[in-house]
Design goal:
The protein has three domains: 45-127, RRM (RNA recognition motif) domain (Alpha-Beta Plaits), CATH 3.30.70.330; 132-250, no CATH class; 257-333, no CATH class. Helices cover 32% and strands 19% of the residues. The strands form two sheets. It has a six-stranded antiparallel sheet. Strands 2-3-1-5-4 form a five-stranded antiparallel sheet. It has helices spanning 13-22, 61-72, 95-103, 149-159, 257-263, 271-292, 295-326, 329-333, and strands spanning 48-53, 79-82, 87-91, 107-109, 112-118, 132-140, 161-166, 177-185, 193-197, 203-210, 268-270. The longest helix is centred in the C-terminal third of the chain and has 32 residues, at 295-326. By secondary structure, the protein is of the alpha+beta class. The protein is globular and about 80 Å long.
């Protein structure tokens, strides 16, 4: 008797290729169909992204789609297409929408991280990497006299991949903490501290706090699950303030929209873009300074100011809405 599967099963690309290698095609099946798509439609795949909920327990997808659509305020319609293994194609209507939303990551729903990357034509969905996600961090306990750009670049790259620097805290300068955006590997435990050694040999330990941190485990430090679902949680083991290596103290204090506006005063530098684009230019400017004084330095400062201002334009548009909606995400998600 012919066996039939009890349930529908998904099949991977590799399994399909193995299957096709065994088949002999008929004459009708061998007829080729020519695609007339020239691939130049900018409202097609070029503006898409691929996302995934990075959690062991997935929230309601339809509710997540509704919340993100209302929260993002895209210029054009955005659609979500669910795929296997929890992946989702996010079909933005234009490149500008996708760029803005990706720059505002991380995005959370129901305390779960929704990681996104740009869609790549011809790339297998299973080969996308969602393990790197940007977060705004605050680094506390750094001596004020040591707070400079060289140090923040070194600290950021020690934690992960430095993306941006916020040059001002609530008092108008770096005094309480350094604020930077870093792309971190969420497959590894969250970094808690940074050790800093001065030129004289003195060591200080800096504490890291994360803004808009999703659910994470207080036992292993990984994002995506809590202590009760941790594989390291042996039966009968308990966790408390005396033995917890991670905890709520790693979350940066939440601020309301008015406080947020006071804390951010056009002080953001997009480090990843600036360094990559101007790497060769900075070297030539250094040589130019030796010959012509401060002219090259002024030109570089002008470019930095332009980059900060461009960043401020799109950030100002959505930051108030994003912060206001933050408290209501869980409530709306369960609706």
């Amino acid at each position: 008797m012919e066996e039939r599967p009890n349930n529908d099963t998904t099949i991977s690309t590799d399994e399909i290729n193995v299957l096709l290698g065994k088949l002999k095609f008929s004459e009708e099946e061998s007829v080729q169909i020519m695609s007339t798509n020239d691939g130049k439609n900018v409202k097609g795949f070029e503006s898409w992204a691929v996302g995934k909920i990075m959690a062991t327990e997935h929230p309601n997808r339809e509710a997540m789609y509704r919340v993100f659509k209302s929260l993002w305020y895209t210029k054009e319609e955005v659609d979500f297409v669910a795929l296997k293994e929890g992946a989702v194609i996010v079909k933005f209507g234009c490149l500008e929408d996708r760029s803005r939303i990706l720059k505002l990551m991380p995005w959370l729903f129901d305390k779960c991280l929704f990681s996104m990357v740009p869609f790549v034509k011809g790339k297998n969905i299973a080969s996308y990497e969602f393990g790197l996600s940007p977060f705004w961090l605050r680094v506390y306990n750094i001596p004020i006299e040591l707070m400079d750009r060289q140090l923040v670049v070194a600290v950021g790259n020690a934690i992960g991949e430095l993306v941006a620097i916020d040059w001002k805290d609530r008092n108008g300068a770096w005094t309480e903490f350094m604020r930077l955006k870093v792309k971190i590997d969420i497959s590894k435990p969250l970094r808690r501290i940074v050790k800093l050694v001065s030129r004289y040999g003195g060591e200080t330990i800096e504490v890291i706090k994360y803004e808009r941190l999703p659910d994470f485990c207080y036992m292993c430090g990984l994002i995506g699950h809590t202590f009760k679902n941790c594989k390291d949680n042996r039966e009968g083991a308990g966790i408390n303030d005396s033995n917890a290596q991670y905890g709520s103290w790693m979350r940066a204090p939440f601020v309301n929209p008015n406080q947020e506006r006071n804390m951010r005063r056009n002080g953001v530098e997009i480090v990843k873009t600036t360094i990559t684009a101007n790497e060769d230019k900075e070297e030539s400017q250094t040589n130019s300074r030796d010959e012509s004084g401060q002219s090259a330095q002024k030109g570089n400062e002008k470019e930095v100011k332009k980059a900060r201002y461009r960043h401020h334009l799109w950030k100002k548009e959505v930051i108030s809405l994003y912060m206001t909606a933050w408290d209501g995400l869980s409530i709306r998600g369960s609706a």
